């Protein structure tokens, strides 16, 4: 049994990872239940992942603390902010951690344009605190959640890890790129093995409510207008959550079995879906038509993401299997079963 620390473990991707790891290992979750979206959703994520419900103390999200209502031997929840170095160091003092999967971040491109300093604080300074903790407590294995957004409007497709990523078009993308650069410093100076995983638009059950598939589904179900940016020709390489979790687990296995690792890997599906096709697929699955409010393209949004996944296939045996229509059906099934996010 290994001891894994998952930062951001109450979030969308984190809770799925925790659900998987907890079957065989000890899992420590660090999450501050940040108000980027409703913290009650994150509590439900954790409950679904661990079977342990949590209790909230405090009113304002900055003051809340979550306590697991019963202790199970292989799960520990810390309500801590990765920006707070002392709290993070105490957690590393308390546990002999084998590897860290660092997912905690402010995600989302558009809000980063309004709040660049907040994004910089959490995604760069917070990541630096995590890297410092690895260094100080001699933890030698790290997976870092990066993003396809580092490619900006890369003209060459599909996007390969060797492509230049010097032309970010949002503060969010720049913070992820900064995290990658800092990660290399800690690999070089402190011999920490690292895989930097560039996720390509992840979807599926528990998807963040701000992301388009979830947002569109919610608005269509409620008969409300969808803000539809651009002419529908922008396209994304949507990656189903089970495929991402499979990629993370294979990456974990790889860094545990190998020394002197520093690699960047694309985790995508290598299938591109246009915005208009994504909408049509949700409409068909829900059996309802969307009402559209046509708006211009948003600054900061990229036109296309498309992952070249040959390196991840070769290095870690990554093999995504979920086609888009199957993934959408699974998302809608989950959404309808958990209609907790419906507006009254
Ligand atoms: N979902 C995607 O499509 C996608 C794509 C590319 C990259 N990523 C990256 O993957 C990671 C997980 O994304 P997600 O979609 O699950 O997002 P999420 O918002 O659901 O999860 C992030 C978690 O981090 C926590 N968190 C935020 N700030 C924190 C802080 N200061 N201290 C402690 N915890 C904090 C949040 O409360 C949340 O539970 C992020 O790093 C994100 O940038 C996600």
TrEMBL record:
Its EC number is 4.2.1.46. Keywords: Lyase, NAD. Residues 5-330 form the NAD(P)-binding domain. InterPro entries: NAD(P)-bd_dom, NAD(P)-bd_dom_sf. The keyword Aminoacyl-tRNA synthetase does not apply. GO terms for molecular function: dTDP-glucose 4,6-dehydratase activity. It is an enzyme of class 4 (lyase). The keyword NAD applies. Pfam families: GDP_Man_Dehyd (PF16363). This is dTDP-glucose 4,6-dehydratase. It comes from Candidatus Ornithobacterium hominis.
